[in-house]
Amino acid sequence: MRFIFNDSELNLTAGLLIKDGQTISIRAKTLLVLKYLITHKAKIVSKQEILASVWHDVVVQEQVLVQSIKEIRDLLGSHVIKTYPRQGYQWTAELNDISKQYSFFGKPVNRASLVQIAALLLLAIIGLVVYSLASNNSSTKAAKFTVAFLPIINDMPDDIHDWVPLQGMDYLSAGLKKSSQLQLIPRVALLQSLPFANQENFQHSDSQKLPLLAQALKVDLLVQTRLRGYPQDFQLDYSFYLGQRVEQGVILAADIATALEQLVQKIALRFDPDAIKTSQPYISNFSNEAFARGIELYLQREYLQASTFFATALQSNTDLLAARRYLAASYINSGDIEQGITLMKVNISQARHKQMHREEIRSHLMIGVLIIHRYQNDSQASDDLTEAELYIQLTKTLAEQYQDTLFIAYALEELAKIRRLQQQYQQAIPLLAAAMQYHKEFKGSYGQTRALIELALIAFAQDKETLGQDYFSQATTIANQNGVATNKVAILLAQAQVALTAQQIEQAKAYGEQAKAIAIKAKSNVLIAQVSAWLAENNSYQVN
Does 406 reside within a domain? Predict the structure, then answer.
């Protein structure tokens, strides 16, 4: 998002204001407030609405919002935001959107855009040369090891983590500056050097060109990161570009801050000369690099190739239980469910021995879910549900023992599904109500949609069509509020299945096509494959 405003350029993607020949970096939280006001400029937005969106992860006083509003007015003028007493704020200034006038990494652009980009790059090169000379002059010894963080690529399936790319980048920079003597390329200098106009283009960039970018920046280490997962269950993929060499790895954590802190520690211990003197010599973590490469192939649905890398990672490090879980999923997604379940049982034993509680809990849940799916689609004996219930109950017991509320909620939902399949509807409903209460407590409460879908299916099974449509409507509202493509698709496919059961063939197909359009817009290969399988009447099941 880029705008021309009062002869200044406002770049909401990079968090920069170019004004009177100066480039000003906008503080991360203030940038989010600015984005929210501009995005919702057609209405008055209350203070609580902005606080809930920007500071959803912490409890703060209204003063923090007042400070951000003051910063915006100081930068752009007091007239840009109108205050409505006891109501809130509204953006009132005219903006000229120039976002679509630019391109990224070789895509066609018009002549005016090329001139602007060339001028920007020239300015950046001059700035970096001056920066480099100043750094060299300030040191009588060899130049310090330089590090640059790219904005974090946000692959979270929602809109509530829009703050991650720049604020996460700042978090990494601040953490590394505090814990090491490494020299960081400032955010302004870096973002001016990146030939992209908007975050969407940047996120889908060709990673093969990043070594060239590292060379252009003359930086020793260029760090690219990608955040995946769901609230309370995050995965941070990282790549270190070191000249012509690339090192990769994966960090698993229950919160984003922990994942970023672990990455900072890895970089400091790996590259800071002071830390290297007091630590063991660096040994390449081959297992983690193989694991990271396997995940790349897995997300491209290249399960056979991915399984080779996961198996290699396990040979190097038998304690890398997440790699065994992905290996099991690769087998399952290739059609070998029994082999996948066998591997997950090994994971349970290993996790229990290593006291890796969440991996043990997750493995129980995964086996239970797979058995439920097999029962639904392969006409297995009813004993399968009894076996599935055993694993799900163990999931719930372990999750309660270790106070892992996310997996308590997941277990309750799967137990409710079992009750629905057994037509024990009255027993299923309180389980789903309990699951929804847990999801309401999480940052990003869109997990409620899973329970609402189950409640809708129960209502339709009882011929309560109006109630069922109401549950679907509630689920859709929550998914839309949080911008969760995964849940939007799940709701539409559930509605499609209900319509199909009622012999409403055209309506079912319409729901399926809507789901496909959402999956394509989200650029999610997993969602596209899921919807395509449904439209082709293929009961294939993808484990993620």
Answer: no
Residue 184's SS3 state is: strand
Residue 429 in any domain: the answer is no
What pLDDT was estimated at residue 105? Answer: 35
pLDDT for 236-263, tens place per residue?
Answer: 999 898 877 888 888 989 889 999 999 9
CATH number (domain holding residue 124): 3.40.50.10610
Residue numbers of the domain that contains 19:
2-99
Confidence at 277, pLDDT banded by 50, 70, 90: low
- Looking at the structure, tell me whether residues 31 and 81 fall in a common domain: yes
- Tell me: do 194 and 242 sit in the same domain: yes
Judged by DSSP in three states, 218 sits in: coil
Domain membership of residue 310 (yes or no) is no
If you count DSSP H runs as helices and E runs as strands, how many of each does the chain have, helices first? 23, 13
Note whether 414 and 372 are within 8 A (CB).
yes
User: Are 286 and 320 in contact, with CB atoms under 8 Å apart?
Assistant: no
The CA angle 165-166-167, to the nearest 5 degrees, is 105
Residue 538: other Cβ atoms inside 10 A:
10
Q: What are φ and ψ of residue 392, in 5° steps?
A: -70, -40
- Rg value, the chain, Cα: 25
